[in-house]
Amino acid sequence: MTASRTSGSAAAASGTSAVSSQPSFQNVLSRTASAASVSAPSTLESIFAKASQKYGVPENLLKAVAKAESDFQANCVSSAGASGIMQLMPETAKEYGITDIFDPEQNIMGGAQELAANLKRYNGDIKLTLAGYNAGCGNVAKYGGIPPFAETQNYVKKVMSYMGQDIQVPNTTYQAASASAGTSGVDTSGLANLLSAGSASGTSTADNTDFTYQDYQMFVGLIVNALKNGWDSDSSENSRSSYWYR
């Protein structure tokens, strides 16, 4: 199926059909699936490096906290409700805009933001930063330093010890939770499979008559996105005049 248009006046004047320069639905489908695959799977190592660079937190500090908090277990949940690799509380995750607390990248980024805020609050003092991360900054203020809690004091010592070690991070690969949304906000998680299925059978996607409910959902999502933004990713005013529905 293609989404071509003709320029009515030009076609009438010349007596021939004009070929639209607008991309076909097949091309849009391919381009959208390609956009969805841009977010390559990440390893924990690469996520820690990215978080460190983005928020200015030493990478060994991030890894040491993750080691102490969950031993790098993404699905870890404490009795208090702290979750994920960096053991974030739900309210903290919400504060940092985390939509999936168990997604490794979102969780690590949230932990990095919390540590960065503490480092700024305590002028780079790592021990106070860790105490605040574990017991809350309110308790650090209340006691004028590391709170006299055995758990917090042991936590600070443990993380400081890990920081001096060569921490082995599990070589596990994760797919970012938001990757299926591509760059347009449309769920394209099944588009790549739809396209590859057509290629494998020697037919184009347009020739594939097995139109499933999942295909219908993706098709509607693409149409809605096109109505909002046009086929082209360029949303500038100049490009608006070339939207397919005008």
TrEMBL record:
What SUPFAM superfamilies does the annotation carry?
Lysozyme-like
Q: Which InterPro entries match?
A: Lysozyme-like_dom_sf, Transglyc_AS, Transglycosylase_SLT_dom_1
UniProt-recorded Gene Ontology molecular function terms: peptidoglycan lytic transglycosylase activity
Give the coiled coil ranges.
none
- Whose protein is this, by species? Caproicibacterium amylolyticum
List, alphabetically, the GO terms of the cellular component aspect.
membrane
Query: What family does the database annotate?
Result: Belongs to the transglycosylase Slt family.
Q: Please give the residue ranges the record annotates as the region Disordered.
A: 1-22
Question: What lineage does the source organism belong to?
Answer: Bacteria, Bacillati, Bacillota, Clostridia, Eubacteriales
Which protein, by its recorded name, is this? Lytic transglycosylase domain-containing protein
